[in-house]
Structure of glucan endo-1,3-beta-D-glucosidase:
Amino acid sequence: MARTRERRRVLRVPRLRPVPAAAAALVIGAAGLVAADALRDPSGAAPASADSAVVPVGAGSYTDVRPEGEPGPSDQNGDAVEPKVTDGFTGPAPTNEWWSSLIYQRYPDNPYGENLFAHPFSFRPHSGGLEVGYPQEHQLVGDGLKYEYPHTADLTMGATGLDAPRTEVADSGDWTVTAQWEGGGTLRTTIGQGLPFAYAETEGADPEVAFEGAPEVWQSEGGVVGASVGGRHYALFAPSGAEWARSGDTFTAAGADHYSVAVLPDPGDLDAFAPYAHSFVTDSRVEYSYDEAAAELTTTYRLTTEPKEGTEDGTLMALYPHQWENADDPLTDLAYASPRGEMRVVDGPEFTTSLTTQGLMPSLPTAEGADEERMRALIDEELNHEDPFRGGDDTYWNGKALGRLAQLVPIADSIGYTEGRDGLLELVKGRLEDWLTAGEGGRQFHYDSTWGTVLGYPDSFGAADQINDHDFHYGYFVQAAAVVARYDRDWAAEDAWGGMVRMLIRDVAETDPESDMFPRLRSFSPYAGHGWASGHAGFAAGNNQESSSEGMHFAAATAHFGAATGDEELRDLGVFLHTTQASTVTRYWQDAGGGTFPDDFGHDVVGMVWGDGGDYRIWWDGGDEEHYGINYLPITASSLYLGYDPEHAAAMHASLEERLGGQPEIWRDVHWEHQALSDGPGALARFEEQWSSYEPEAGESKAHTYQWVSTLAGAGTVDTSVTADTAHYAVFDDGGTKTYTAFNPGTAPLEVAFSDGTTMGLEPGELGTTTS
């Protein structure tokens, strides 16, 4: 039964406008993420004046002048940095990209950038242009703890006489970037994830390609050269009428103003690439369409191309495994190696994938037979603690505390503990309002117009001085706000506290192509299918993502906040982010289905995915429980994706216990909750044995852990074969007995239809359950 029309959200790189010194805030209205003429407080007062440090947003506010003594985006020495862009680049600077070291100079002695892993290509910029490689063989490093496909330079794309003092960003798309070098001539290159071509334009100099060693030339005719280095095959394409002249290992195309380089799976594939050699990519964008009634997410990845000669405007695109396994388009026989597994190629400038959307529940139901008195007592331990926030006072640790307390609200409500529910809501509201109101010192958010980002103070883990981890941190605030909105929609109204919450969402996942305040999808890389944690990506291994589960948490929080406030476009954004990442997380972090990790990599999980591979290690000297658990926490009802394949979830838990030689001792609650996705009764038994003596993980509580494991012990494992015509549902199977649950976030009654014919009527705000 379709209740809402299918909606499409176009995500494309904007032609951005300059940001004024005191940027006017933007808000998200009922139609989605749009610019507002002005922000007003509840009384209707005008925004703060341009010279004021405090900008009101509804009942909240942020500063547009950084609080004294607090850090902003900096280099390794602590000195302020500005985006490294050309004069023609306007608008907020993208960060947290696979290519961010081009725009964010982390190291004072490197004005060019670090290794860039676009797949299938790898690159490294330097004064003479752009090194190009194709890492097709892996190696194990760090005593076998990391597998990597390292950058090895095969050639440099350059221009005659080029000696640039730095590299700058001229333009970018959703997964492409154009870099520029000036010095003895001008070189502009466009590169991107999944592009088997790298494109170059020159001005005041001739195209030049210098191989690192003597190439084996197997094709040389006019403007086309085919050559191999170390078993890797390349084609150089100059314009018609130009010829590549060789001098030693360097090829020059005199009089030409553009060229392209293709990496070929095999020399015999040259003819498949030649027709597209002069069809230059100028933009990349992703579009998604969420059909709620059909439980389907359709995503189109589209390149804009411009023929530099002739009329051909097509191209080739190399797809990651999570894309080609779900692609609606025919695949060619062309394929590449990559750190994510085999990439396969489509012929054309776009392709579409289709994914089933499993539901996003805001909380789980409480099982019949659960010990409600104990649950109530455990809630009281949190509510009446001398410090419910446990001392954490920065955006991450205070955020985790907010998430921990907010998760208890629906649990208290489910057992009829109204007093506890309301007490928890007041705690959460009070701390959220504290953060969402700027003032002298204390907790607050600041908008940095130089980088187009919201920075929270106090900060941690480089969130302010490196623009790291914003989805990890802010997801807890958004989730807590979604819980408040579930019970008090007025609190989350745009002219109340919702405006500031939406500002945090937009900092992480802006979609408005005309935004002057934020770059596109900062913390989500749509082609990769997941986020990148580092703002600057200043590493030889490229960018990295450690806690994929906290990225998923932000996605779910966005969907829940949108649903709780009646903003379906915002809800759909969260569904898009969550569903897409669900297709990558267990695959690339846990090798689900095989095909990602090399056969000689002796680990079942990686703690971090890097541009060049995967690493079992994490950012601190943690134990095995943390290496696994960092990509599980926080456990919420949106964590069910970890159990979409119960056999795989069981294998992951067994793998950890095999490493440990017994049960987890660190983050026991997180691992019990993960175990419950494949063995609820076993997880409940372990909780019962140890519940009075263990120390909860910082974002967890005994009340929540007990509710989670007891619910799954009775309901069984996630059943993905049954869907529903709502965004908020889950189905479980226990030996053939199915448990259906759904939530109605709206203000009118809702009839939910499951794909197997089961139906469920829900009143506004009701979370319902039935079995069959």
